[in-house]
Amino acid sequence: xxxxxxxxxxxxxxxxxxxxxxxxxxxxxxxxxxxxxxxxxxxxxxxxxxxxxxxxxxxxxxxxxxxxxxxxxxxxxxxxxxxxxxxxxxxxxxxxxxxxxxxxxxxxxxxxxxxxxxxxxxxxxxxxxxxxxxxxxxxxxxxxxxxxxxxxxxxxxxxxxxxxxxxxxxxxxxxxxxxxxxxxxxxxxxxxxxxxxxxxxxxxxxxxxxxxxxxxxxxxxxxxxxxxxxxxxxxxxxxxxxxxxxxxxxxxxxxxxxxxxxxxxxxxxxxxxxxxxxxxxxxxxxxxxxxxxxxxxxxxxxxxxxxxxxxxxxxxxxxxxxxxxxxxxxxxxxxxxxxxxxx
Length: 343
Ligand SMILES: C[S@@+](CC[C@H](N)C(=O)[O-])C[C@H]1O[C@@H](n2cnc3c(N)ncnc32)[C@H](O)[C@@H]1O
What we know:
Blueprint: H1 2-9, H2 17-22, H3 33-36, H4 40-57, H5 61-68, E1 80-81, E2 84-85, H6 86-89, H7 91-101, E3 108-112, H8 118-126, E4 131-136, H9 139-152, E5 157-161, E6 174-180, H10 189-199, E7 200-211, H11 218-228, H12 249-258, E8 261-269, E9 273-276, H13 279-287, H14 290-297, H15 301-316, E10 319-320, E11 323-326, E12 330-337
Parallel strand pairs: 3-4, 3-6, 4-5, 6-7
Antiparallel strand pairs: 1-2, 7-12, 8-12, 9-11, 10-11
Helix pairs in contact: 4-12, 11-15, 13-15
The structure holds S-adenosylmethionine.
Protein backbone atom coordinates (compact mmCIF):
# COMPACT_ATOMS: atom_id res chain seq x y z
CA UNK A 1 0.00 0.00 0.00
CA UNK A 2 2.91 2.34 0.71
CA UNK A 3 4.10 1.76 -2.81
CA UNK A 4 0.58 2.50 -4.00
CA UNK A 5 0.40 5.77 -2.07
CA UNK A 6 3.78 7.03 -3.21
CA UNK A 7 2.83 6.11 -6.74
CA UNK A 8 -0.14 8.42 -6.40
CA UNK A 9 1.95 11.12 -4.76
CA UNK A 10 4.24 11.06 -7.78
CA UNK A 11 1.34 11.63 -10.11
CA UNK A 12 0.66 15.24 -9.26
CA UNK A 13 1.70 16.67 -12.61
CA UNK A 14 -0.87 16.73 -15.37
CA UNK A 15 -0.01 14.67 -18.41
CA UNK A 16 -2.60 15.95 -20.83
CA UNK A 17 -1.38 19.06 -22.62
CA UNK A 18 -4.86 20.12 -23.58
CA UNK A 19 -6.18 19.97 -20.03
CA UNK A 20 -2.97 21.40 -18.68
CA UNK A 21 -3.50 24.49 -20.76
CA UNK A 22 -7.02 24.89 -19.44
CA UNK A 23 -5.84 24.24 -15.87
CA UNK A 24 -9.29 23.99 -14.36
CA UNK A 25 -8.75 21.54 -11.59
CA UNK A 26 -9.19 18.23 -13.33
CA UNK A 27 -5.47 17.72 -13.11
CA UNK A 28 -5.78 15.71 -9.94
CA UNK A 29 -7.30 12.82 -11.80
CA UNK A 30 -4.77 12.93 -14.58
CA UNK A 31 -1.95 10.49 -14.60
CA UNK A 32 0.98 9.34 -16.57
CA UNK A 33 -1.47 6.72 -17.85
CA UNK A 34 -2.28 9.31 -20.51
CA UNK A 35 1.29 9.12 -21.68
CA UNK A 36 0.98 5.38 -22.09
CA UNK A 37 -1.63 5.94 -24.73
CA UNK A 38 0.53 6.36 -27.78
CA UNK A 39 -2.10 6.67 -30.44
CA UNK A 40 -2.70 10.36 -31.13
CA UNK A 41 -6.38 9.92 -32.08
CA UNK A 42 -7.09 8.10 -28.85
CA UNK A 43 -5.30 10.79 -26.87
CA UNK A 44 -7.47 13.40 -28.52
CA UNK A 45 -10.60 11.44 -27.63
CA UNK A 46 -9.39 11.25 -24.03
CA UNK A 47 -8.66 14.99 -23.98
CA UNK A 48 -12.09 15.83 -25.32
CA UNK A 49 -13.68 13.50 -22.77
CA UNK A 50 -11.78 15.31 -20.04
CA UNK A 51 -13.01 18.61 -21.33
CA UNK A 52 -16.64 17.63 -21.67
CA UNK A 53 -16.58 16.03 -18.25
CA UNK A 54 -14.99 19.12 -16.81
CA UNK A 55 -17.81 21.27 -18.03
CA UNK A 56 -20.68 18.90 -17.20
CA UNK A 57 -19.45 17.81 -13.83
CA UNK A 58 -17.69 21.01 -12.78
CA UNK A 59 -14.88 19.80 -10.59
CA UNK A 60 -15.80 22.37 -7.99
CA UNK A 61 -14.67 23.51 -4.60
CA UNK A 62 -17.02 21.04 -2.92
CA UNK A 63 -15.17 18.10 -4.43
CA UNK A 64 -11.82 19.69 -3.69
CA UNK A 65 -12.84 19.99 -0.06
CA UNK A 66 -13.95 16.38 -0.06
CA UNK A 67 -10.55 15.27 -1.24
CA UNK A 68 -8.92 17.36 1.45
CA UNK A 69 -11.27 15.85 4.01
CA UNK A 70 -9.35 12.65 3.79
CA UNK A 71 -9.07 9.08 2.74
CA UNK A 72 -9.81 5.82 4.42
CA UNK A 73 -6.88 4.02 2.91
CA UNK A 74 -5.26 1.55 5.22
CA UNK A 75 -1.54 1.37 5.95
CA UNK A 76 0.63 -1.36 4.48
CA UNK A 77 -1.15 -4.11 6.35
CA UNK A 78 -4.57 -2.51 5.91
CA UNK A 79 -6.19 -5.87 5.27
CA UNK A 80 -5.67 -7.10 8.82
CA UNK A 81 -5.07 -5.12 12.00
CA UNK A 82 -5.27 -7.03 15.26
CA UNK A 83 -8.31 -9.26 15.31
CA UNK A 84 -10.19 -7.46 12.54
CA UNK A 85 -9.72 -7.61 8.81
CA UNK A 86 -11.18 -5.89 5.79
CA UNK A 87 -13.25 -8.95 4.83
CA UNK A 88 -14.83 -8.88 8.28
CA UNK A 89 -15.45 -5.15 8.02
CA UNK A 90 -17.35 -5.63 4.77
CA UNK A 91 -19.15 -8.88 5.64
CA UNK A 92 -22.62 -7.35 5.18
CA UNK A 93 -21.68 -5.58 1.96
CA UNK A 94 -20.29 -8.76 0.56
CA UNK A 95 -23.59 -10.61 0.83
CA UNK A 96 -25.37 -7.93 -1.21
CA UNK A 97 -22.54 -7.67 -3.68
CA UNK A 98 -22.40 -11.42 -4.31
CA UNK A 99 -26.08 -11.35 -5.28
CA UNK A 100 -25.46 -8.43 -7.62
CA UNK A 101 -22.53 -10.18 -9.34
CA UNK A 102 -24.75 -13.17 -10.11
CA UNK A 103 -21.77 -15.12 -11.41
CA UNK A 104 -22.49 -18.18 -13.60
CA UNK A 105 -20.54 -21.45 -13.54
CA UNK A 106 -18.63 -20.79 -16.77
CA UNK A 107 -18.03 -17.04 -16.32
CA UNK A 108 -14.62 -15.48 -16.86
CA UNK A 109 -14.31 -12.91 -14.09
CA UNK A 110 -11.98 -9.94 -13.69
CA UNK A 111 -11.65 -8.56 -10.13
CA UNK A 112 -10.35 -4.98 -10.20
CA UNK A 113 -8.31 -3.87 -7.18
CA UNK A 114 -8.83 -7.32 -5.69
CA UNK A 115 -6.77 -6.71 -2.52
CA UNK A 116 -6.22 -9.99 -0.70
CA UNK A 117 -8.73 -11.64 -3.00
CA UNK A 118 -11.80 -12.68 -1.01
CA UNK A 119 -14.09 -11.61 -3.86
CA UNK A 120 -11.82 -13.25 -6.46
CA UNK A 121 -11.88 -16.55 -4.56
CA UNK A 122 -15.64 -16.39 -4.26
CA UNK A 123 -15.88 -15.73 -8.00
CA UNK A 124 -13.64 -18.71 -8.75
CA UNK A 125 -15.81 -20.94 -6.56
CA UNK A 126 -18.97 -19.72 -8.29
CA UNK A 127 -17.46 -20.30 -11.73
CA UNK A 128 -15.90 -23.80 -11.57
CA UNK A 129 -16.04 -24.07 -15.37
CA UNK A 130 -14.74 -20.52 -15.86
CA UNK A 131 -11.92 -18.65 -14.19
CA UNK A 132 -11.15 -15.57 -12.11
CA UNK A 133 -8.32 -13.06 -12.48
CA UNK A 134 -7.59 -10.70 -9.58
CA UNK A 135 -5.51 -7.62 -10.28
CA UNK A 136 -4.07 -5.17 -7.78
CA UNK A 137 -1.22 -2.65 -7.63
CA UNK A 138 -0.14 -3.86 -4.19
CA UNK A 139 2.51 -6.59 -4.18
CA UNK A 140 1.74 -7.42 -0.53
CA UNK A 141 -1.98 -7.83 -1.22
CA UNK A 142 -1.36 -10.00 -4.30
CA UNK A 143 0.98 -12.35 -2.50
CA UNK A 144 -1.54 -12.79 0.32
CA UNK A 145 -4.28 -13.37 -2.25
CA UNK A 146 -2.18 -16.08 -3.93
CA UNK A 147 -1.47 -17.76 -0.60
CA UNK A 148 -5.16 -17.84 0.33
CA UNK A 149 -6.20 -19.24 -3.08
CA UNK A 150 -3.51 -21.88 -2.90
CA UNK A 151 -4.55 -22.86 0.63
CA UNK A 152 -8.06 -23.38 -0.71
CA UNK A 153 -6.78 -25.44 -3.63
CA UNK A 154 -8.49 -23.29 -6.25
CA UNK A 155 -7.23 -24.16 -9.73
CA UNK A 156 -9.22 -21.65 -11.80
CA UNK A 157 -7.81 -18.48 -10.28
CA UNK A 158 -4.88 -16.20 -11.02
CA UNK A 159 -3.57 -12.98 -9.54
CA UNK A 160 -1.46 -10.29 -11.15
CA UNK A 161 0.25 -7.27 -9.66
CA UNK A 162 -0.57 -4.51 -12.12
CA UNK A 163 -2.40 -1.24 -12.56
CA UNK A 164 -5.85 -2.12 -13.89
CA UNK A 165 -6.02 1.28 -15.57
CA UNK A 166 -3.18 0.45 -17.95
CA UNK A 167 -2.80 -3.31 -17.90
CA UNK A 168 -3.09 -4.95 -21.27
CA UNK A 169 -6.03 -7.34 -20.78
CA UNK A 170 -7.09 -9.71 -23.54
CA UNK A 171 -9.75 -7.87 -25.56
CA UNK A 172 -13.41 -8.75 -24.95
CA UNK A 173 -12.35 -11.67 -22.79
CA UNK A 174 -14.26 -11.33 -19.53
CA UNK A 175 -17.97 -11.96 -18.95
CA UNK A 176 -17.94 -9.74 -15.89
CA UNK A 177 -15.61 -7.26 -14.23
CA UNK A 178 -16.25 -6.91 -10.51
CA UNK A 179 -14.82 -4.62 -7.88
CA UNK A 180 -15.38 -4.18 -4.17
CA UNK A 181 -14.18 -0.65 -3.42
CA UNK A 182 -11.25 -1.00 -5.83
CA UNK A 183 -12.15 1.48 -8.60
CA UNK A 184 -12.34 4.72 -6.63
CA UNK A 185 -8.58 5.04 -6.55
CA UNK A 186 -7.95 5.18 -10.29
CA UNK A 187 -5.62 8.10 -10.91
CA UNK A 188 -7.47 8.85 -14.13
CA UNK A 189 -10.87 7.17 -14.53
CA UNK A 190 -11.14 8.51 -18.08
CA UNK A 191 -8.19 6.32 -19.02
CA UNK A 192 -8.99 3.41 -16.70
CA UNK A 193 -12.62 2.67 -17.54
CA UNK A 194 -12.14 2.36 -21.33
CA UNK A 195 -9.38 -0.12 -20.55
CA UNK A 196 -11.84 -2.12 -18.43
CA UNK A 197 -14.58 -1.79 -21.07
CA UNK A 198 -12.27 -3.23 -23.74
CA UNK A 199 -11.60 -6.28 -21.57
CA UNK A 200 -15.31 -7.17 -21.22
CA UNK A 201 -16.99 -8.88 -24.12
CA UNK A 202 -20.14 -7.32 -25.62
CA UNK A 203 -23.05 -8.50 -23.52
CA UNK A 204 -20.85 -8.70 -20.42
CA UNK A 205 -21.11 -6.51 -17.31
CA UNK A 206 -19.23 -4.28 -14.91
CA UNK A 207 -20.46 -4.51 -11.30
CA UNK A 208 -18.63 -2.40 -8.78
CA UNK A 209 -19.23 -1.20 -5.25
CA UNK A 210 -18.17 2.35 -4.34
CA UNK A 211 -18.81 4.58 -1.34
CA UNK A 212 -21.55 7.17 -1.43
CA UNK A 213 -20.79 10.73 -0.31
CA UNK A 214 -18.57 10.94 2.78
CA UNK A 215 -21.25 12.85 4.70
CA UNK A 216 -23.63 9.90 4.30
CA UNK A 217 -21.11 7.54 5.83
CA UNK A 218 -21.39 7.40 9.58
CA UNK A 219 -18.05 5.58 9.88
CA UNK A 220 -16.31 8.49 8.19
CA UNK A 221 -18.22 11.34 9.85
CA UNK A 222 -17.99 9.89 13.38
CA UNK A 223 -14.30 9.16 13.22
CA UNK A 224 -13.51 12.49 11.63
CA UNK A 225 -15.49 14.26 14.38
CA UNK A 226 -13.70 12.34 17.08
CA UNK A 227 -10.36 13.24 15.52
CA UNK A 228 -10.97 16.92 14.89
CA UNK A 229 -13.14 17.94 17.86
CA UNK A 230 -11.59 19.89 20.73
CA UNK A 231 -9.00 22.60 20.87
CA UNK A 232 -5.79 20.84 19.97
CA UNK A 233 -6.84 19.29 16.74
CA UNK A 234 -5.29 18.33 13.45
CA UNK A 235 -6.46 20.72 10.76
CA UNK A 236 -6.34 18.60 7.65
CA UNK A 237 -6.33 14.96 6.82
CA UNK A 238 -3.90 13.86 4.17
CA UNK A 239 -4.98 14.35 0.57
CA UNK A 240 -4.22 10.76 -0.34
CA UNK A 241 -6.36 8.86 -2.88
CA UNK A 242 -9.99 9.73 -2.43
CA UNK A 243 -12.29 6.83 -1.48
CA UNK A 244 -15.28 9.04 -2.30
CA UNK A 245 -14.20 9.90 -5.84
CA UNK A 246 -17.03 7.84 -7.39
CA UNK A 247 -19.70 8.78 -4.86
CA UNK A 248 -21.72 11.10 -7.09
CA UNK A 249 -23.99 9.22 -9.54
CA UNK A 250 -23.93 12.17 -11.96
CA UNK A 251 -20.15 12.05 -12.04
CA UNK A 252 -20.08 8.26 -12.38
CA UNK A 253 -22.69 8.29 -15.12
CA UNK A 254 -20.65 10.92 -16.96
CA UNK A 255 -17.45 8.93 -16.61
CA UNK A 256 -18.90 5.54 -17.54
CA UNK A 257 -21.15 6.92 -20.27
CA UNK A 258 -18.16 8.67 -21.82
CA UNK A 259 -15.80 5.72 -21.58
CA UNK A 260 -17.59 2.85 -23.25
CA UNK A 261 -20.44 1.87 -20.93
CA UNK A 262 -24.23 2.13 -21.09
CA UNK A 263 -27.24 0.80 -19.13
CA UNK A 264 -25.75 2.30 -15.99
CA UNK A 265 -27.68 1.44 -12.84
CA UNK A 266 -27.19 2.39 -9.20
CA UNK A 267 -28.36 0.38 -6.21
CA UNK A 268 -28.39 2.08 -2.83
CA UNK A 269 -26.74 -0.21 -0.26
CA UNK A 270 -27.28 0.62 3.42
CA UNK A 271 -25.29 -1.90 5.37
CA UNK A 272 -23.12 -1.22 8.42
CA UNK A 273 -19.38 -1.81 8.53
CA UNK A 274 -18.00 -4.05 11.27
CA UNK A 275 -15.04 -2.71 13.25
CA UNK A 276 -14.49 -5.48 15.79
CA UNK A 277 -15.96 -7.58 18.55
CA UNK A 278 -15.36 -4.96 21.23
CA UNK A 279 -14.09 -1.43 21.79
CA UNK A 280 -10.42 -2.44 22.06
CA UNK A 281 -10.47 -4.40 18.82
CA UNK A 282 -12.30 -1.60 17.00
CA UNK A 283 -9.95 1.07 18.37
CA UNK A 284 -6.97 -0.93 17.14
CA UNK A 285 -8.57 -1.27 13.71
CA UNK A 286 -9.44 2.44 13.46
CA UNK A 287 -5.97 3.46 14.67
CA UNK A 288 -4.61 1.48 11.73
CA UNK A 289 -6.33 3.79 9.21
CA UNK A 290 -3.79 6.03 7.57
CA UNK A 291 -5.83 9.17 8.18
CA UNK A 292 -6.16 8.35 11.89
CA UNK A 293 -2.41 7.93 12.08
CA UNK A 294 -1.78 11.13 10.12
CA UNK A 295 -4.20 13.08 12.31
CA UNK A 296 -2.63 11.80 15.53
CA UNK A 297 0.87 12.57 14.24
CA UNK A 298 -0.08 16.23 14.00
CA UNK A 299 -0.79 16.39 17.74
CA UNK A 300 1.46 16.59 20.77
CA UNK A 301 1.51 13.55 23.11
CA UNK A 302 -1.09 14.88 25.55
CA UNK A 303 -3.52 16.01 22.84
CA UNK A 304 -3.03 12.71 20.97
CA UNK A 305 -3.88 10.75 24.12
CA UNK A 306 -6.95 12.90 24.66
CA UNK A 307 -8.02 12.38 21.05
CA UNK A 308 -7.62 8.60 21.30
CA UNK A 309 -9.87 8.64 24.36
CA UNK A 310 -12.46 10.60 22.39
CA UNK A 311 -12.17 8.02 19.63
CA UNK A 312 -12.66 5.26 22.18
CA UNK A 313 -15.82 6.96 23.43
CA UNK A 314 -17.20 7.29 19.88
CA UNK A 315 -16.47 3.63 19.23
CA UNK A 316 -18.10 2.59 22.52
CA UNK A 317 -21.27 4.42 21.44
CA UNK A 318 -21.43 2.10 18.43
CA UNK A 319 -21.05 -1.18 20.26
CA UNK A 320 -23.95 -3.59 20.57
CA UNK A 321 -24.16 -7.24 21.54
CA UNK A 322 -22.80 -8.21 18.09
CA UNK A 323 -19.74 -5.97 18.20
CA UNK A 324 -18.90 -2.48 16.95
CA UNK A 325 -20.79 -1.33 13.86
CA UNK A 326 -20.97 2.00 12.03
CA UNK A 327 -23.57 2.95 9.45
CA UNK A 328 -22.47 3.20 5.84
CA UNK A 329 -23.90 3.99 2.43
CA UNK A 330 -22.52 2.55 -0.78
CA UNK A 331 -23.58 2.23 -4.40
CA UNK A 332 -23.51 -0.90 -6.44
CA UNK A 333 -22.94 0.41 -9.94
CA UNK A 334 -23.77 -1.94 -12.80
CA UNK A 335 -23.05 -1.13 -16.45
CA UNK A 336 -22.61 -2.82 -19.81
CA UNK A 337 -19.85 -2.11 -22.28
CA UNK A 338 -20.88 -0.87 -25.69
CA UNK A 339 -18.88 -0.03 -28.85
CA UNK A 340 -15.44 -0.06 -27.29
CA UNK A 341 -13.18 2.91 -27.97
CA UNK A 342 -10.34 1.64 -30.16
CA UNK A 343 -6.95 1.29 -28.48
C1 LIG B 1 -10.12 -0.59 -0.44
S1 LIG B 1 -9.09 -1.78 -1.15
C2 LIG B 1 -10.25 -3.04 -1.68
C3 LIG B 1 -9.60 -4.36 -1.90
C4 LIG B 1 -10.53 -5.50 -2.33
N1 LIG B 1 -11.34 -5.16 -3.47
C5 LIG B 1 -11.40 -5.94 -1.19
O1 LIG B 1 -12.59 -5.61 -1.16
O2 LIG B 1 -10.87 -6.61 -0.28
C6 LIG B 1 -8.67 -1.02 -2.70
C7 LIG B 1 -7.69 -1.83 -3.49
O3 LIG B 1 -7.55 -1.27 -4.79
C8 LIG B 1 -6.20 -1.40 -5.18
N2 LIG B 1 -5.97 -0.46 -6.30
C9 LIG B 1 -6.01 0.88 -6.28
N3 LIG B 1 -5.78 1.38 -7.49
C10 LIG B 1 -5.60 0.35 -8.32
C11 LIG B 1 -5.32 0.23 -9.71
N4 LIG B 1 -5.18 1.31 -10.48
N5 LIG B 1 -5.19 -1.00 -10.24
C12 LIG B 1 -5.30 -2.10 -9.46
N6 LIG B 1 -5.56 -2.04 -8.13
C13 LIG B 1 -5.72 -0.84 -7.56
C14 LIG B 1 -5.43 -1.12 -3.90
O4 LIG B 1 -4.11 -1.59 -3.93
C15 LIG B 1 -6.30 -1.85 -2.88
O5 LIG B 1 -5.89 -3.18 -2.72
